[in-house]
Write a structure and sequence with these properties.
By secondary structure, the chain is of the alpha/beta class. The chain has two domains: about 5-345, no CATH class; about 360-465, D-Maltodextrin-Binding Protein, domain 2 (3-Layer(aba) Sandwich). It has helices at about 5-20, 35-45, 50-80, 80-90, 95-100, 105-125, 130-145, 150-155, 170-190, 205-210, 215-220, 225-240, 245-250, 260-280, 290-310, 315-335, 340-350, 360-370, 385-395, 415-420, 435-440, and strands at about 375-380, 400-405, 425-430, 445-450, 460-465.
Length: about 475
Amino acid sequence: MSLPIFTDEAIYTRWSQIARFDPNWRFISLTDGKQPLFVWIDMMIMRVTSDPLLAGRLVSVFAGFATMVGLYFLGKTLFSKKIGVIAAFLYIIFPFALVYDRMALYDSLVAALAVWSLFFEILFVKHKRLDLALILGMVFGASVLTKTTGFIFIYLLPFSLLLLNFKKEKKNELLRWGILAGVSVAFAYVYYSILRLSPFYHIINDKNSIFVYPIKDWLIHPFQFFPNNFQALFDWFFVYSTPPFLILIALSVLGKKIREKLLLFVWFFVPLMGLAVLGRTLYPRFILFMTMPMLVLAAYSLDNILSKLKFNKAIIVLFFVTSLLISDYLIINNFARAPIPTADLVQYINSWPAGGGAKEIVNYLDNESKKRKIYVASLGTFGSLPTYAVEIYLGDNKNVDKRGIYPVPSQIPADLIEKSKNMPTFLFVSNQHEFEQSLTTWPIKLIVEYRKGVGDSFSRLYKVQL
C-alpha cells in the first residue's frame, strides 16, 4: 500500500464498489469495454477488507500466488520438479511481476490465467481426456472474461501439438484431440456469451480498436508501425528482465527437450510479434503474460548450469539474480527511481496519472468533514483520479457533498460560489495541466500540494475564498 493509487486502479476500484452494492451494475466495466471478472473478484474481497484499494490489490496478490504455483507445475510437467521449483523462485524475484502483483490492475490475473492455460493445454495434448478438455475450457472462459487477451490463449492451443511425435501418434488420437479441443473452445465461448446479457457488450470491440488496429485499418498502413512497436516491446522486456536473466533465456536453446522449449518460445514470440504488428497503443503491462514461459526457460538453463559446473553454486546463482534483486529492492523502497521502463515510472509514480498525495488529501477532507459539512469539487468526471478518489473513500460520508467538473470553464462555476457561502468548499486537482490556466482566474487558495514521485506533477487541494 506504499505505492500511491494509479488512475486505472481508481477506476476499477470504483466499479467494484458500485457492482458490489448494485446487482444491476455487475457488468459496469463493459461501459468502458472491459470484461468483468477482475471486478467480480474485487467486489467479493471488498467484503473482508476495510480499504477498497487494498481489495483490488489483493486480487493481484492472489493472482501472483496462482502464477507462482502454476509455474512450478509447468516446469515440473515439461522438465523436472527441480526446474519447477527454480521457475517459481525466479517468479518471486522477477521485477516485472513484483510491480504488477501489488497493483489493482488486470494484468497479474491475465498472467496467472496464461500460465494455467498453457499448463492444461500441455496436459490435454498428452492425455486427450474429456475432463481435461472441460477444465481447459473453464480456464479459457475465465481468461476471456478477464481481458480480450484471453483469446490469444485459445489461438495458441494448436501449438501444443508441437509436443507430439506425429510418427508415433495414431490418427484416431489426433482426431480425438481435435474434437475435445473443439469442446474446450466451445466451452470458453459459452462463458464469454454471458457478456451478451449486458447492453454494453458492443463497446468491447470499440475499446479493443483503441489498443489494436482492426484489420481493415491495419491494411491501410501494414507494418508501418512494426519497427517502433517491436523495439518498444523488446526494450520493456529487456529492462524488466536485466541482461543476466536474458543470458539464461538464450542459453536454454542448448540441450535436449527441443519440443518443450519451442512451445515456450512460441508462447512468447507469437503474441509479441502479433502485438508489434497490430499494436496501436502500447504499455509495458501488455507483455507481462508473455514473459511467464521465459521464466521456465531461464529455470531450465540455471538448473543445467548448476548441474554441470563444480565450483561454488551460490556464486553462480548470485551472478544471475543479483541484478533482479537490486531492481526488487528499489521497487519496494524507492519506486520513483527504480530501474524499470520509463513508461511505467511515468504512469505509476512520477507524472499526472499517478496518485501521489491523493491519500493525504482524502484524509484531510475526511478530517474536515468531522468538524462540519463540506463541499468537494474535483476536475474531471470519468477517469479522473481526484473524482474517483473522493467517491471511493468519501462516497458514504454524509458530511461531504461532491461533484466532478467537466468540461472545466474559464470562470469558477456558480455552485462553488454559492456553496462557499454556507460551508467550506474545496477543489481537488491532480496536475491537469490543460486546466491550470483557467484556475488562475478562480478565487481559490492553495491549501496543500504533494509532488508525484520525482517528477514535476502535483496533487493540489484548493479552498474557495471569496
